[in-house]
Amino acid sequence: MQELQHYINGALVAGTSGRFSDVLNPSTGEVIARVPLATPAELDAAVQKAAVAQQAWAKVNPQRRARVMMRFGQLINDNMDKLAECLSREHGKTLPDAKGDVQRGLEVVEVCMGAPAMLKGEYTGDAGPGIDLYAMRQPLGVVAGITPFNFPAMIPLWKMAPAISAGNAMILKPSERTPMTSLMLAELFTEAGLPEGVLQVVHGDKEVVDAILDHDTIQAVGFVGSTPIAQYIYGRAATNGKRAQCFGGAKNHMIIMPDADLDMAADALVGAGYGAAGERCMAISVAVPVGKETADRLIAKLIPKIEALKVGPYTAGADVDFGPLITAASKTRVEGLIASGVEQGAKLLVDGRGLSIQGYENGFFTGASLFDDVTPDMDIYKEEIFGPVLSTVRMDSYEEALQLIIANDYGNGTAIYTADGDTARDFAARVNVGMVGINFPIPVPLSYYSFGGWKKSAFGDLNQYGPDAFKFYTKTKTVTARWFSGIKDGAALNFKAMD
Ligand code: NAD
């Protein structure tokens, strides 16, 4: 079994804490590696070196930094198959889905190749007599990224690429459940020419996360994970005077209007509900058909499609639609929630529980499940299930459906399927959710926009990647400069400078 290491100063370094966490292959249930859990002292050593490296990195001109991003992007492309294989092995998602995970991170790296344009400042000549005014964006220093298990390439890249191309050094604390892809990415970044110490991968659990939140040198924390932890991290980071943007969980609804193309809507629900076993923060977990006829017709189309879904290990190739859940505990939790749905009166039309795959009996597989007649007071509606379970909440009108979404605590993504432009437009304008799809089930914005939810799906301001990320990872310095022709004799005690 492999013993993983931290990635410090451009090299792999063994952990010294003596504490480890198992990394599993969720398809087989086997322990494939153990990851060291860092102590605050190990974190501190990584931060000290990062602080020194950052000073030099910030002085590298933006275009040269961008060239490192170009080579990094090329290396990610060249190593796509290896990265996807590593990712599928530790996460369980299918290989095409793993490539999508890498690709959506790579697209952020591509935008960061244009970081010099994002980092330009502002200038006003002759703002007063002999006075010029300008603003520049400077890096924060050492920043931290804390990432979840479900996108082992994409989310670390969302964190490291903007932060580093803006001249910061980053401490990346990947999920201890899927840490191996981050290590591969760090090695490729070094190969691309990133100076040692600018990206430090420090593994760990709550102990090291708390040390990050309390470390005086770390200026900002970018977090992605579940809502309770996002809220906790946001609070503790802010109390310690750090910038924080903390993205949390989700419960994404899709409204299906009577005029929607129901074949298209059903396919969208199957892809967005069950892809990656539902372990996506942008998964659609609630279908909201409007009107009894729409609901009945939609359900009739969904059932055979869902029953036909193939579940299995990523090694089975094209024969598999989605893989296992991340851990045995996750499988128990998801299947427990399904049981609660039945107990609380929802109609379980497709039951994915109790799935056993020959040769993979110890894998954490659960099949696709579909509920009808779900109501907002049920646990399957209130909780983020994070599994291959789609709940149908029937509504009589568009307005009721919209109000259901507005009342929900989460606000990450949502979608509407309709042929009516006015309804779609009204929905986009009024819904209180950060990312909206119109006849589009998983509206993850492209990398030159920004990603972020509302309500309990995100704490802090500014979104991830795109222009917002460059704002988050830089601070503005504004300079008022007067040269001699503008200087008059005598002290000016009033507050007006621009006469
Ligand atoms: P998680 O909250 O369990 O873990 C996320 C990170 O926080 C990990 O690095 C973990 O080590 C750390 N952590 C866990 N418990 C902690 C604690 N008590 N104190 C300090 N740090 C702790 O999340 P997960 O299970 O890895 O990921 C799934 C969740 O992430 C889902 O809720 C999903 O919706 C959400 N997610 C959100 C987005 C988004 O952009 N909004 C994207 C992907 C995933």
Give a list of the ligands.
nicotinamide-adenine-dinucleotide
Biggest sheet statistics: 7 strands, mixed
Number of strands: 23
Helix content: 25-40%
Q: Terminal Cα separation, in Å?
A: 73 Å
Rg: 25 Å
Oligomer: single chain
Helix/strand/pairing category:
alpha/beta
Strand content: 15-25%
GO molecular function: methylmalonate-semialdehyde dehydrogenase (acylating, NAD) activity
Keywords: NAD, Oxidoreductase
Enzyme class: oxidoreductase
Protein name: methylmalonate-semialdehyde dehydrogenase (CoA acylating)
How would you portray this structure in words?
Its EC number is 1.2.1.27. Keywords: NAD, Oxidoreductase. This is methylmalonate-semialdehyde dehydrogenase (CoA acylating). GO terms for molecular function: methylmalonate-semialdehyde dehydrogenase (acylating, NAD) activity. It is an enzyme of class 1 (oxidoreductase). It is a single chain. With 499 residues, this protein is an alpha/beta fold. It folds into two domains: 2-248 and 457-479, Aldehyde Dehydrogenase, Chain A, domain 1, CATH 3.40.605.10; 252-438, Aldehyde Dehydrogenase, Chain A, domain 2 (3-Layer(aba) Sandwich), CATH 3.40.309.10. It has 16 helices and 23 strands. The chain has helices at 40-59, 62-78, 80-91, 95-112, 115-118, 154-165, 180-191, 206-214, 227-239, 262-274, 292-307, 328-343, 379-382, 398-407, 421-430, 466-472, and strands at 2-3, 6-8, 11-13, 20-25, 30-36, 122-128, 131-139, 142-146, 169-173, 199-201, 218-224, 243-247, 252-256, 284-289, 347-350, 369-372, 389-392, 410-411, 413-417, 435-438, 454-455, 458-459, 474-482. The strands form six sheets. Strands 15-16-17-14-13-19-20 form a seven-stranded mixed beta sheet, with helices on both faces. The chain has a six-stranded mixed beta sheet with strand order 10-9-8-11-12-22, sandwiched between helices. The longest helix has 20 residues, at 40-59. It is globular. The mean pLDDT is 97. It binds nicotinamide-adenine-dinucleotide. Nicotinamide-adenine-dinucleotide binds at residues 146-151, 173, 175-176, 205-206, 209, 224-226, 229, 247-250, 281, 384, 386, 412, 453, 457.
